[in-house]
What does this fold into?
Amino acid sequence: MYIDSHCHLDFTVFDEDRDHLIEQCRHLGVDGFIIPGTKFERWNNQVLLKARYPMFSMAYGIHPYFLSDELIVSVEYLGEFCENNDAVAVGEIGLDIWPTSLPLDLQLSFFRSQLSVASTLNLPIILHARRSYDLLYKELKKQRFSYGGVVHGFSGSLVQAKRFIELGFVLGIGGNITYTRASKSIKVVKELKNEDFVLETDSPDMPVMGLQGERNTPRNIPLIAQSIADIRQQSLHSIAKNTSMNVCRVFPKFVRGSNVEL
Ligand SMILES: [Zn+2]
It folds into this structure.
């Protein structure tokens, strides 16, 4: 059985067929889903969805790319919100260095505040990093953050991978790995230990090879697992088993879909 450790099934693009999609996932053996928070205004909607879909595990946080709509005071609610609503992690939080993103100092202040919430609650984080692996590593070390988490959609080097792993993180491996041109990621995935990574789709984004332009869904988790199995010369079964165990280790509050009563 597989877990999609990062999918945005709360987005409206899934409103029409969410039930059907979950059913299809179950048939494919995908029975656990972590839904990271993106915007303050969407947290309540996540809570409503969680009530309807007990197989969803929720994280709450403010995504660095969407900060232009956000107020730093929203972070004051984050701790209480996480506590009251069974958050498995704080996220996704991080730094997004991109021409259309907000200035770095502002991103850093949001990141530091959200990171301190995670520390206070002893929760892991879901880390979003674009062009910022080294900076985030330094920041996590400086803040002595010790609850680990996932570096989502990891596409860095082996050196960067090892640094995060030393800090107690695992790497989220997604659709990128299905592309034959992803030679840097393929090299990293070959070298990792079984304990070092988890599966993710980042649905509806990050399509797998051959399905570009389509909405991505957790149905593609087995395709990602197959690519990893081929690269590492391991069985699909061991990829499923190890990555699921890793999710349960990194997110102690995670509850598997197959364990929830419907
Ligand atoms: Zn995401």
Summary: Residues 6, 8, 36, 92, 202 surround zinc ion (CB under 6 Å). The beta strands are 2-4, 30-35, 56-60, 89-96, 125-130, 149-151, 169-173, 197-199. The radius of gyration is 17 Å.
